[in-house]
């Protein structure tokens, strides 16, 4: 926080919230967002100028941008995750699981995921979100990341549920989503954005700088503040060797997501001044690392709460001050390196 900002002589920074992908592990950042809103004494959408998310992070970002508070998002995810990751209920479901183990089919029928998304967003279009929002997906045909933006004219009419469906189409778990992504009228097969940018922080910073430049010239990133929320960092390495194609595919997918997340974190930390970049992440056990194990939600919430008790709550309180344009507590700021969580 600069002296000018602390005295109210300078505009508030451009504030971004980014949320990683991670399937059911998305409950972790939701718990932290609830605590952040408690410190802000207001919903997150009133204190951020942009949201960005990948996969479950895109769902959370869009829900916040439409005006939900973190408690509402928490309740929806806890009560609806089983729709997306439904346990086998008939012979067809069991057949799909066997085919999945051989690498021949997605593990889940996307109908459950789509029902969940329809239940959250209904007929809302991307351009109707209250806060500018980015959702990352991957165009399999073009072989490149695709950034859905509520600020783009050709993206504004897109249904939010469909954008989130595209962002959450994790390979091996769900089939790619065929959709028209722009005004070309051509359908493209869209997959989970975590394939290239599970942590959307760098793309969000790039988008923000362009938007800020549109209002006033910016020569550096001192006017951009980022709060970046992870979904738990699994242990490095494999404890067991996968015995099926699906197992190897899952390991590869996890490696892609973890590698991209770490790289983007390091890049953002390098780009932004220390007081402008706030990364929240915690370690999780191998047992809690699966993206689709709904039965882990309670344990994941416990991990998130434990991280708060281990110092993250104080950091969230300082982040709230930064977002509100208040100076950081001097004693805390001077000793922040001792309290910083390695990630």
Automatic annotation (TrEMBL):
One MF annotation (Gene Ontology) recorded for this entry: phospholipase activity
Entry-linked PROSITE patterns: PNPLA
Keyword Lipid metabolism belongs to the record: yes
Sequence motif: GXGXXG, positions: 21-26
Short motif (DGA/G): ranges: 192-194
GO biological process, one term: fatty acid metabolic process
Motif GXSXG mapped to chain: 53-57
Keywords: Hydrolase, Lipid degradation, Lipid metabolism
An example Gene Ontology CC term for this record: membrane
Record's protein name: Patatin
Species annotation: Imhoffiella purpurea
């Amino acid at each position: 926080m600069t002296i000018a900002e602390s005295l109210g002589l300078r505009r508030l920074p451009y504030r971004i919230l980014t949320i990683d992908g991670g399937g059911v592990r998305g409950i972790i950042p939701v718990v932290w967002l609830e605590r952040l809103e408690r410190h802000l004494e207001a919903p997150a959408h009133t204190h951020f100028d942009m949201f960005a998310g990948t996969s479950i992070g895109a769902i959370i970002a869009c829900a916040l941008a439409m005006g939900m508070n973190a408690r509402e998002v928490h309740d929806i995810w806890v009560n609806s995750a089983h729709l997306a990751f439904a346990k086998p209920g008939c012979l067809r479901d069991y057949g799909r699981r066997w085919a999945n183990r051989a690498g021949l089919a997605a593990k889940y029928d996307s109908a459950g995921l789509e029902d969940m998304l329809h239940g959250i967003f209904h007929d809302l279009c991307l351009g109707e979100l209250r806060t500018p929002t980015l959702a990352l997906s991957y165009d399999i045909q073009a072989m490149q990341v695709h950034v859905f933006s509520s600020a783009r004219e050709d993206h504004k009419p897109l249904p939010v549920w469909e954008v989130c469906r595209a962002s959450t189409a994790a390979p091996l778990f769900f089939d790619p989503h065929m959709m028209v992504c722009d005004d070309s009228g051509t359908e493209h097969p869209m997959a989970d954005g975590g394939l290239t940018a599970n942590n959307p922080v760098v793309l969000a910073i790039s988008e923000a700088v362009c938007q800020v430049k549109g209002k006033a010239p910016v020569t550096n990133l001192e006017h951009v503040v980022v709060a970046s929320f992870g979904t738990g960092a699994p242990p490095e390495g494999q404890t067991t060797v996968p015995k099926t194609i699906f197992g190897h595919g899952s390991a590869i997918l996890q490696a892609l997501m973890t590698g991209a997340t770490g790289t983007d974190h390091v890049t953002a930390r390098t780009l932004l001044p220390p007081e402008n970049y706030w990364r929240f992440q915690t370690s999780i056990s191998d047992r809690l690392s699966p993206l689709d194990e709904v039965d882990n939600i309670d344990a994941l919430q416990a991990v998130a709460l434990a991280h708060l008790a281990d110092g993250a709550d104080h950091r969230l309180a300082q982040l709230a001050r930064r977002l509100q344009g208040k100076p950081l507590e001097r004693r805390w700021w001077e000793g922040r390196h001792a309290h910083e969580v390695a990630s």
